[in-house]
Write a structure and sequence with these properties.
- This protein is of the alpha+beta class.
- It folds into 2 domains: about 200 residues, no CATH class; about 40 residues, no CATH class.
- Helix content is about 35%, strand content about 25%.
- It contains 8 helices and 10 strands.
- The strands form 3 sheets. The protein has a 5-stranded antiparallel beta sheet with strand order 6-1-3-2-10.
- Strand 2 and strand 3 form a beta hairpin.
- The two termini are about 40 Å apart.
């Protein structure tokens, strides 16, 4: 039985040393699905080693292609139950993940997948793995124990590519200023055409799903458990599901912190 599971917030990404790999994901967007599966296999193998049991966790994955400067930086955000269920539907709790070990497994999974696709040679894989820092990073210290905490992490996972308040258009020069980093300490000035190119490069392909559900949160598993009436799960609305008007407005308020039902001039409420 899983009742209101605590979640790990896990970030899996490639660091500066493996920028050479990012170009594959820029021009082969289907690789993001494989990247998700590599990270999922790495996570489940880590759980299996820690518990000596084959566990199925609940996983929500948000794919992001951008960094703070709207630059190309493919990485994943995972929201993971703090453990998983074994073959007997017994939940095993995992309190801590060894990030360095998980990062190593993740690196080997991704590199092996690129070799299978003939995008990378085995010699380059050995070279990358021999470096002191392979460039692959995992951060799993974020925990959510309450619904507001989970919503806060969820908002971060699906944040947009840029924030308008960080953007300034220098019209006479045809330039754009973009402030980035903690407390907007960084500043980059670029030509407006370069800015447009950066933003549009992060538009997903038609039909590409950027938020995915695995394990206990997958459609097949949830349907199976509902039929058996053996578990109570957190139900997450599927992408593209019809959302009632009030639900849509509430989501907008929580994600963007703007009330879409209020007039921006007088503050009055719209009625339908």
């Amino acid at each position: 039985m899983i009742d209101d599971p605590v979640h790990h917030g896990i970030g899996c990404k490639e660091g500066d040393d493996t920028k050479m790999l990012r170009i594959f994901f820029k021009f082969k967007r289907r690789l993001f699905g494989d990247l998700c599966r590599c990270a999922l296999r790495s996570l489940t193998r880590t759980f299996e080693v820690m518990t000596e049991s084959s566990l199925t966790p609940g996983v929500i994955v948000a794919i992001q292609t951008f960094g703070d400067r709207i630059n190309l930086h493919p990485h994943l955000h995972f929201l993971v139950t703090e453990g998983g269920v074994d073959g007997a539907d017994v939940f095993h709790k995992i309190l801590r993940i060894d990030d360095s070990r998980l990062a190593e497994i993740f690196a080997r999974e991704v590199l092996a997948d690129l070799v299978r696709k003939e995008l990378l040679s085995p010699e380059w894989v050995e070279r990358i793995l021999s470096w002191r820092h392979t460039g692959f990073n995992v951060h799993s210290l974020v925990r959510t124990k309450t619904k507001p905490e989970a919503e806060r992490v969820g908002k971060y996972m699906i944040r947009p590519v840029l924030a308008l308040e960080r953007l300034t258009f220098l019209e006479p020069a045809g330039k754009v200023d973009y402030r980035w980093g903690r407390d907007t300490a960084g500043l980059e000035t670029m030509d407006y055409l370069e800015f447009i190119a950066r933003v549009t490069s992060h538009i997903p392909d038609k039909g590409q799903v950027m938020v995915r559900y695995y394990g206990l949160y997958a459609n097949a598993h949830r349907g199976k458990m509902r039929k058996k009436e053996q578990a109570r799960l957190i139900i997450i609305e599927e992408e593209g599901a019809k959302i009632p008007r009030r639900g849509w407005a509430e989501i907008r308020r929580k994600v963007y912190e703007v009330d879409p039902m209020a007039c921006p001039k007088c503050g009055g409420k719209y009625f339908s």
